Every structure is written in C-alpha cells, then in structure tokens.
TonB-linked outer membrane protein, SusC/RagA family
Amino acid sequence: MKRMFVFLMSLLIYLGGYTASYAQSSSGILVKGVVYDAANRSVSLPGVGVTLKGGSKRTVTNGNGTFQIEVPSASSVLIFSYIGMQNQEVKVTGNQELNVFMSADSKALEEVVVTGYGTQRKSDVTGSVGVVSGKDLLTAPATNALQGLKGKVAGVNVFLNSGSPTGSPKVLIRGLGTINSSSNPLYVVDGVAMEDIQFLNPNDIERMEVLKDASSTAIYGARGANGVVLVSTRRGASTEGVTVGYDGYVSLGVLPKKLDMLNSDEFLQVIQKGFENYSKYNPTGTAPVFSKKDPRLFDANGKPLYDTDWQEESTRTAFSHNHQLSVLGKSEKSSFGAFMNYGRTEGIMLNSWLNRINSKIAYDAKPKKWLSLGFNLLVNSTKGNEIQEDGGGQSPRRSMLEMPPIFPVKFPDGGWSNSSMISDPYSLESIANPVHVLSTQDRLRKRNQLFGNTYLTFHLLPGLDLRTQFGFDKRDNLFQDYNPTDLTNISAPLGYASIENQHSFYWQEETYLNYNKEFGDHRINAVLGLSWQERTAENGFVSAQGFSDDFFRFNGIQSASQPGAPTSSFDRWAMNSYFLRGSYSYKDRYLLTLTGRADGSSRFGKNNKYGMFPSFGLGWVVSKENFLNQVQAIDELKFRASYGVTGNTEIPTYQSLGTISSETTLLNGTRVSTSFVNRLPNPNLEWEKTKQFDAGFDLSLFKSRLKLGMDYYHKLTTDLLLDRPIPSSTGFAVVRDNIGSVSNRGVEILLSGSPIVSQDFRWESTLNFSYNKNRIEALGANNEDIFPGPGFVSGSQTILRVGESLSSFYGYKRLGIWGTDEAAEAALVGAVPGSAKRSTQRGVIGKGLPDWSGSFINNFRYKSLDLNIEMQFVHGVDILQQFFHSTQDRTGYSNGFSSTLYDSWTPQNQSGMIQQIRNGPYSGQSSEVDDHWVANGSYLRASAITLGYNLTQKQLMKYNLKSMRFYVSVQNAFLIKSKSFKGYDPEATSYGDNQWGQNIYFHQYPKPRTFTLGASFQF
C-alpha cells in the first residue's frame, strides 16, 4: 500500500508538471462564445462540456453559458456536450466568437441503466429501478457509502442509526420481509457481490442503481429478495487526454443538543425525597438517614463541591478531514483511472475515530476489434476506535447521562472518580465515569480489504458479445479490546483483554452472452450465462483477565493470570447458478422482459439444493402512440407492470444439517474434550421466497421540466425460516424449518422538476415519498405468537403476531398513576398511590417501522453560486425509549431526567404519568416496559444545506484549470420531532443488525451537527 501511494503521488506530480508546462508553452487561437438552449434562445446553458476534437483540451461553460478555449488552428473542431442535449461539432474556421444553440436530444430517454449483467435503454426497462449519480451521493460530505443514498430513492429506507464514525447504516428496500434471514440488500460493486459496503470510499462511486421489483432483481435469484444495489465505481476518462483532480474538505462536528438531566442540587433533592418516601414503600424497614458529609464531595455546609456536566465532559468538537486524488487518462484504445483517498473522521464522543486509506486502479482497453479487456483493483484499509453501541451495560453513551453530577472527572489527587466513591449511604449503582472509560478503554477495529475483478469481452458478431469475468473480495479484520484494571463494574480489578481475527475470501466467476440488436421495428436485448461463487471464513478468538497492571494491554495477553478458553471456527458456502434475461421492444412502444435464474446453494437441504426464480415485465410507451405523439407537452408516458419470484439465501451455514459442537469441561479436576449434537437435520430446508407484483408509470412533461414516477407493489414472502417446536422426547426444543409468511404493500412517488429556468437563475426540485404497510400473514400451523427479543425488563420487547407488523413493540399499557383515592384498589395488585397503574396483560404498544418516509431536495443556482437543501421526513413510526427505565422509572440508583424532580407524582400533583420519587436501592422499583416509554418517532430533518461557488470560465483560464469549486455545508442542520421523544435523535437502535431493534434503544451515540469547508478542482 505504501508503494502504491508513492507511485500514485509520483504519477500525479509528473502529470501535473507536464500539464502545466504544456499549458504554458502552447500557442494558438483563443476562441470565445456562448451556448444557448435552442428551444429558448434567450436562455444560456451553464456546465456544457467544450472539447477540442482529437486533443486533450477541454473546458465547461460558466454560469452565464460563456466559454473560452485555446485551439491550435483555424481548422480546429469543438465538440459541445450537455446532458439531455444533442452533441454538436462546430468548426472554428477562423471565427473566434461563437454562438452555439443546442437542441434537446430526442434520444435522452435512451439513457442506459445498469440492470445486472449488462445494461438496457432506460425507455426499455419494465422494472422499478432507482438511479443516483455519484455527484448526488456527495451533495454533502459522507464517510459511509450509504449516507448519500438516504432520501434519494423512493421505497428505500436508509436508517443512519448512530453518529459514530464506525456506525453502520441499515437499509431496507420496500419493507422488512424476513424474520431470521438477513434483511440487507445484495450489494454488487462493478459486477462483484460485496457483502458489506460500509467502508467503501464514497468518492469512488460513479453511480448507484437500486433494483426494487422482481423484474429487475430476479436475475440475482436466491439473493435478490431484499432488493439489489448495483454500484459502479469510477474508471478512466471519457475524452482523450489526462485529467488530474482533487476533492477535499475539513469539518467540525458538535453535539446539537443536550438532554435535560439533573444537576447536583436537583440530584440530591431526588435522593432526599426518595429517603423521605421510604416508609411508604417499605413500612417494616428502617429508613435510611440522608446526609451530605463526604468531604471529597461536599463542603462543611453540605454544599456539593462539583456539578459535572457529563455530556459536556464526554463529548468534544470533532475535527475531521478527507482528501481524494484522481488521475484519469484516455488514449485511442485504452483508458485508466487511478484514485487515492485518505480521511480521518473524529466522533463527537472522546477517543472515537476512524482512519481510512483507500487506493483504486481501473484500466480498460480494446486492443483488437474483437476483444475488450480490463481490470479493477481496490485496496481499502481502515482503523478505528469504536464506542460500544449495543445493549445496555456500562457503555459511556449511557453513563454520560446516568453518572451523578456530584462526582468530578478526577479528584485533586489525579485519581479518576466513580459512583462508588461516596461515604454517605446513597447505595448508588456502581458506574465508572464515562470520561475514564472513553480515555482508557481500547476497542480497536482494523479492517483490510482487497477487492477487484478482471474481464475479457469477445465481440463475436455485431451485437453479440461473450464476457467472462472473475472477481474477489478478501477481508482481514483484527479486533483488539482492552478494559483496564480500574474500570469499576466493567473490568476492575482484573482487567480484560481480547483479540479476534477474522479472515474471509469470496470469489465469483461468471461467463455470459450479451445480445443487443435492432431489426427494423424490433429490438432485442438478451443475456444468457452461468455463475460460480464461494465464500470461506476463518475466525479465532482469545481473551484473558487477571492483569497485574495496564502496561501491556492486549499486546501481552499471555501475562494475564486467568486466560479464557480460546475459540476458532471455519465456515464455507458455495453457489452454482444459471441465468437468462430477454427484453423485446416493438416500435419503441410495446415492451416485454422475461427473466429467470436457477440457483444451487450449499446452505440448504439435500432435497432442495436448487431453486428456480422467474419473472416477467410488461411495458407500454403510450406517448409513442399516434393519439399522443403529437401532444407536445408530453415527452414520455410509460406504463409498466411486473411479477416474479426471488429468494433469500442469507442464513447461517449448516442449518439444514445435524451438527456437532465440541468444547471442554472439567471432569475430576481435569479439562477434557466433549462433543454433543446441537441441531437436528432438516433435508427439506429451502430458501425463503418473495413473490412481488409491481405496477407503475413514468411521465415526463414540458421537455423534461416536470417528471413523475409512481409505483404500487405487493410483496409476499413465504417459507419463512423459523424455529418450529418439536416433541421434547427428541432431546431438542425446535428445528429450523420453512413456516410463516409476511407481506409488504406500498406506494412510491417521485416528483421532480425545474420550476424556474432563466439566464442567471435555475431551480430544480425533487420530492419523493413512499408508503409501506407491513403485516405478518402466517406463523406456522397454529399461528402462535413468537417472542424473538431483544430481552429487557418484562422479557421480550417485541412480538411476532399474525395481523401485526414486524418490529412490533410488546408491553403493558400505562393507565396512569395510582391516586390517593385508589389506595384500596392499588393494594389488590401490590401497589400504592404514586406508583404506575398498568394493564394486567401485555400487548402491542407500537412499531419501529415507518409508514411514510421521503425527502424534499432543492437545488438552486444563481450565476456561479449553487445552493442545495435536503430535507428528510418520517411519519407513522414509534420509538421504544428503553432509557426511561433508568432515567425516570428507577430513581435513586443514578442520575436521571430533570422531569423526575419537577413532574413526578406528589399528593398535590396526581395528574401526570411519572411515578413518585422513591429510592430504588432501599425501596425497590416499579419499572416495566409500557406505552409510557413509547414516543411518536415522526420527524423532519434538514439533513444537509450546502452553498457552493464555481470559478468562472475567465478565472479557470487564468489558472489553467478545467474546473474549481468551493463550498460550505452544514449537516443535520435542524431536527423537528415530537415532544414525547426525550432522546437525542429519533432514528437509532441499541441492537445493531437485530431485525427487531429498529427504534428500540437504551441509549445512543448522538448524531453530530457538522460544519464543512471543502474544495474540488481539475486540471
């Protein structure tokens, strides 16, 4: 990687010097001009590419549509190109002042889209495909390849669940349709499946296509049920010559808001009131005596010495920067692209960071008329310190809210504080202060990836190509954890270290024929091919505790006195597939697409190794009919419909087999090896199947000034992989089987247009929103409820119940607070006035999947200035605020919300929903999951506001540049949410990839508000 870095830097410096010297030494004719829209001759066109034919010189028109370019002679030819317009070639012929008028391209609708194993004309596509350019993905700086996708494609929910630099987004395409299998879409990067694109450099992405319906995803068969995201990365230059570019930014991230927690005086009032109410909740006990005498924490008058704002102490202003270098070149028969990226992203929580270095080389050539070839190689290395985000425990994201403010970060002697360091009888929960944890705990994550592919394309006949390609994805991860010996209630007094190595290698080989031909009114696009794929994985894990000091940390794990049992594992799966797709168009009006794939997977039972996944799509371009083609306002009107079956093979390996586990146990004081059967075989196990119907239309009006797309879909997933109960006489409780079904019904709408287009000002706007209704249709023979977790107080927090949505919250109803006039009634259920009044039975109290989601994106341009505003919204979703357990319902153990002091039940205030203050360690608690914890999760967010300035053509010529842009932006600019939600951000989870964890969280890593200054240029 270091050698590659040196090579790319040397090449960049050489090419930069060569380009500069060429610009300085060349001489010729300076040609100036203006480019106009032929349909409205008073409107000039900014951003038009102006290229010297046969040469490397290139420029673009500025905000006024003007340009100037130096050409070698009066016979030179300039090529003008602009998206949606016909290319024009104009001879200079001694004319140094040109007015160029560009006409709309009637073939603009023939834009090609990647649809898997080839491309199709956009007008011929019968499926539902969303397209996002790399430029649109980077309207605001992004460290994650999926950040920029959020809100850009209707029907695609991207949950940015954390503000951590190492946090991973969760993507759902057209709802959640599985229970035990993965819900992640299939990611295909440059034709190669990539299991995780979280750390893919977003600056390398040229465009993304999102395949949503069965007509477009069936070509991926058993891996297409959750949708497919096709990623095309940047390659070589499109015009001859060499272009060198740089993109970079620096940013500052801050905590947008603080939660309203108790300060020291308020916290002590809560402790005192809890002591005063002791006898009410424990009438037979001896009431504790409240005091403020500990000299380390209180002065002689009992006044607290410290009032620590733990949110302030645990967070910081995070400084991040990112730098991307690119060298693009093209000659007559080949092109290349070399890219390198370095970035450091700091999190707003202390000691949270991610470093990434990324290098990529792409090469394409056509050495013979009958042969094309190329390769793509990517090296990606990341290293970061990760803050624990799952579960509860003593993670700093929790303790920075619950650590009592009466303690300092450090005492005057330099020692770290913790909540056990008090002599007054408060009986606080033992908590290591969050600054101590963040400063001394290691959770290092090192990831190295080598990814690439190579291809050969044989041009057998006109329109007939044979392509064979080989791709691979090699990953090596090293996770190193160390918890010091002085972290109370985490690792004290022994300390804890662990090292985990993860190695995986995935390869695929695919060979297929592509046929593209027109016969008069007929056009055929066909693909026929076969594929082999395999993935192997090896893991090793060692841990230990019992360190005498913290010197070696995980680097001397052998020095620990209590080593844990080491573990290792090996995993392998393979697939063999055959696929085809045929698209037929008649007179550009009537469209038919047939797709099929046969997949064989090692993950399923011996009786169901292969499955067939067919689909078909129909389209009618009504605007081509005689009764509409004379309507000038309509550019395109296309109706389309599709139906097909896809599968989900993403389950752990060996689930269909009877497997044996091995471990050790102590027998007569000696550790011996043991083995036992841990799973019954099921030779009939097969993949989940998703049948999907889609109907929609695409409408373009007024020379593409207004566009509308709408889809209705119905997805039914059957043969869900669930654990079926079996007789206990077998020695097992369950066996994995295909039972149950889930449906998703929805509507997607995408409306875009250019309300204002004038000489100096342009406004482009896009509104997209989608509605999805998720429903469990069946759960085995008896449709019995299933409680999949995650577990917390009251047991499982979610329920699977026929007729309800997946990710339904499960808990009690809070009917109020028992009043003084209800003392007798409360006593019947073991309660007293002031405690929560709840329903006797649990039920569905909310859901974590939204009904509505979407975005409203506006782009404005005035001369050389541009402004981008992205708004995103979610409606019809709930949040299960598990943190109410410890910050409101369980007073006395730790710090909590200020509302516990000011809004809690008292004999004088019996109308609220917050229980009376009691001291949990002495008086117990009444904390159960109920609907008081559930908040409205709807929100409106200004996700990004970006203001940019592009250098004028005159300025570019002065500095010998092709383009240059400066910009400033703010991300997460503001957030409008419901008053019932009391956390940092309504979009989060404490349960990682758990299917049921969305919008369920105990505490969260807050999302920052980020201010960015950036620049990009090409020469």
